[in-house]
Design brief:
heterodimer, A: mainly beta, 4-stranded antiparallel sheet, B: mainly beta, globular
Chain lengths: 105, 121
Amino acid sequence: DIQMTQSPSSLSASVGDRVTITCRASQSISSYLNWYQQKPGKAPKLLIYAASSLQSGVPSRFSGSGSGTDFTLTISSLQPEDFATYYCQQSYSNSFGQGTKLEIK
Amino acid sequence: QVQLVQSGAEVKKPGASVKVSCKASGYTFTSYYMHWVRQAPGQGLEWMGIINPSGGSTSYAQKFQGRVTMTRDTSTSTVYMELSSLRSEDTAVYYCARVNSLNTYNWFDPWGQGTLVTVSS
């Protein structure tokens, strides 16, 4: 099984900050990596697919990069609505990272 | 618009089974695979399996093999996930999620609203 490890598990930041979340796969997954945002009580929402492609309707402050085993999600300038939990997911066998909770500092 | 609407919350006793439905609309039901993902309270997302609504073929995560059954009804554009031999650790929100793909890449979008299954004696 492919294990996905996110870091950090939680993060405190302020509005306007630049934030980076990392996801590491236990073996190479090429660019088969997606990112989701989840707010309390809601279903996850797709942000980035194929490691770096921005889903339609998602603000351009979100970006993804990486290939192989190491990936990043970057939010260039945090907005109040971005405080949520973020998950990476590999689409070889569909496992998820454990999540990164982004909180207001 | 593409929409997935799931059945309502369930409360079950240990050892029982639960069957959750996910009704699709706004697209050709048989053209897109569907996944099931669950989330225990305060925990992360856990992939359970996938069903091809066209032929009904399935693939399950090893953890759930023998306890989960995914089916579909093409006449109502609905997929079902049945989990048997329930235990307290199965208390979770269960989501269906449609696959989208481009070339060899695929991702989950959209998701259903989730169905809370509570297992308690």
